[in-house]
């Protein structure tokens, strides 16, 4: 990925500036070099993250402007395609005046400035704590005892030096004010190792609900020292669902609440007890489906971090899957042409997957490496379950 960025970003910078022929060649080259140097900073940060050569706290703060740069590059890529697509049409139409206007320094620098401002606005939006968004889910086959059950979904908190203890405390307070009956955390609770992040997740111990607080792992738990974090979550009082089902009595209805591991299983991490050995569990829907059936459950609610597992899970008799991972697509437009294809078409909100309902949260936090939101706010999702 880093090698690809080192190749693509300079080409993108050259494509941005080289057609602006009213600028001297040396000026165009210098502008392209400066743009490429700026654009390559996120790739450099990724290398530092992998090598562990910089303290994570410092790196987390550097990642925020790095995300701003990535968003800037995405917007510039869109601008280039539109600009030169229109230029080609003008060439076909033999409109020399439009061809000149499309390759003026003013238009290109204006686009660069606008992209920078939009990206900065996106960063400011991303750093705001989430509000509670309540919605009703209509579910076929929902037992009468579960009618009106209030489920708070806290996906993708990504507690870190950026989403720090104050940020997490705000999430906790707003969640408790919503009076949920059940609280679930479908993965990516943290970034960074336990020693640097313990204080940031401490407020999660305050979460309380009638039917408990339950969590399943996400891919970032596997990147951050899985075993150590699972031990810390247990110490905080979170009930962990690692390829495990728990039968819950909800006003006489037998609810199977389960969680599975993440497809990121097998990823090595410097934070693992032995960095050469993977930690955690692979996703195992067959095990939890069997447990639910053997327990005589009337309804199966599954926590699965990545929504792209939904079609397999629906075939195993799951009634409702709660997921995160996508952060809702982050930026309107990018959500459909970039995030959706990487997640089997699932980005945010409700989906019908066979007989199963899938709900994908936009996430209550954000990974510091791409802290940008435009049109897709962070969310504490309060789901009120109703029969269809």
Automatic annotation (TrEMBL):
<dbReference type="InterPro" id="IPR004843">
    <property type="entry name" value="Calcineurin-like_PHP"/>
</dbReference>
<dbReference type="InterPro" id="IPR029052">
    <property type="entry name" value="Metallo-depent_PP-like"/>
</dbReference>
<protein>
    <submittedName>
        <fullName>Metallophosphoesterase</fullName>
    </submittedName>
</protein>
<feature type="transmembrane region" description="Helical">
    <location>
        <begin position="61"/>
        <end position="82"/>
    </location>
</feature>
<dbReference type="InterPro" id="IPR051158">
    <property type="entry name" value="Metallophosphoesterase_sf"/>
</dbReference>
<keyword id="KW-0472">Membrane</keyword>
<keyword id="KW-0378">Hydrolase</keyword>
<keyword id="KW-1133">Transmembrane helix</keyword>
<dbReference type="GO" id="GO:0008758">
    <property type="term" value="F:UDP-2,3-diacylglucosamine hydrolase activity"/>
</dbReference>
<feature type="domain" description="Calcineurin-like phosphoesterase">
    <location>
        <begin position="149"/>
        <end position="328"/>
    </location>
</feature>
<feature type="transmembrane region" description="Helical">
    <location>
        <begin position="102"/>
        <end position="127"/>
    </location>
</feature>
<dbReference type="GO" id="GO:0016020">
    <property type="term" value="C:membrane"/>
</dbReference>
<dbReference type="GO" id="GO:0009245">
    <property type="term" value="P:lipid A biosynthetic process"/>
</dbReference>
<feature type="transmembrane region" description="Helical">
    <location>
        <begin position="32"/>
        <end position="49"/>
    </location>
</feature>
<keyword id="KW-0479">Metal-binding</keyword>
<dbReference type="GO" id="GO:0046872">
    <property type="term" value="F:metal ion binding"/>
</dbReference>
<keyword id="KW-0812">Transmembrane</keyword>
<dbReference type="Pfam" id="PF00149">
    <property type="entry name" value="Metallophos"/>
</dbReference>
């Amino acid at each position: 990925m880093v090698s690809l960025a080192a190749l693509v970003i300079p080409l993108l910078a050259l494509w941005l500036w080289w057609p602006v022929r009213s600028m001297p060649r040396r000026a165009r080259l210098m502008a392209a070099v400066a743009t490429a140097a700026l654009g390559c900073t996120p790739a450099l940060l990724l290398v530092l993250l992998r090598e562990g050569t910089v303290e994570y706290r410092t790196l987390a703060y550097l990642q925020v402007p790095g995300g701003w740069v990535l968003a800037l590059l995405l917007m510039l890529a869109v601008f280039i395609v539109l600009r030169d697509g229109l230029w080609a049409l003008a060439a076909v139409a033999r409109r020399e005046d439009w061809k000149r206007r499309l390759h003026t320094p003013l238009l290109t620098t204006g686009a660069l400035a606008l992209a920078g401002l939009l990206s900065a606005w996106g960063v400011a939006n991303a750093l705001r704590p989430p509000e509670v968004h309540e919605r009703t889910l209509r579910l076929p086959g929902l037992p009468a005892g579960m009618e009106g059950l209030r489920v708070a979904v806290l996906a993708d908190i990504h507690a870190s030096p950026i989403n720090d203890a104050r940020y997490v405390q705000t999430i906790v307070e707003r969640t408790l004010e919503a009076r949920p009956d059940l609280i679930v955390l479908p993965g990516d609770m943290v970034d960074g190792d336990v020693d640097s992040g313990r204080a940031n997740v401490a407020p999660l111990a305050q979460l309380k609900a009638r039917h408990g607080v339950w969590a399943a792992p996400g891919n970032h738990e596997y990147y951050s020292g899985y075993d150590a974090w699972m031990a810390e979550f247990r110490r905080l009082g979170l009930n962990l669902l690692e390829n495990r089902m728990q039968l819950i009595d909800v006003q006489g209805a037998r609810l199977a609440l389960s969680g599975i591991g993440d497809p990121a299983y097998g990823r090595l991490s410097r934070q693992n007890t032995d960095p050469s050995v993977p930690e955690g569990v692979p996703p195992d829907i067959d095990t939890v489906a069997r447990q639910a059936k053997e327990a005589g459950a009337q309804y199966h609610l599954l926590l699965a971090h990545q929504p792209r597992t939904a079609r397999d899970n629906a075939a195993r008799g799951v009634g409702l899957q709660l997921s995160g991972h996508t952060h809702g697509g982050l930026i309107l437009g990018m959500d459909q042409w970039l995030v959706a294809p990487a997640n089997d078409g699932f980005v945010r909100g409700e989906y019908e997957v066979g007989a199963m309902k899938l709900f994908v949260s936009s996430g209550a936090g954000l990974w510091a490496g791409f802290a940008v939101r435009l049109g897709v706010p962070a969310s504490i999702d309060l789901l009120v379950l109703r029969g269809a």
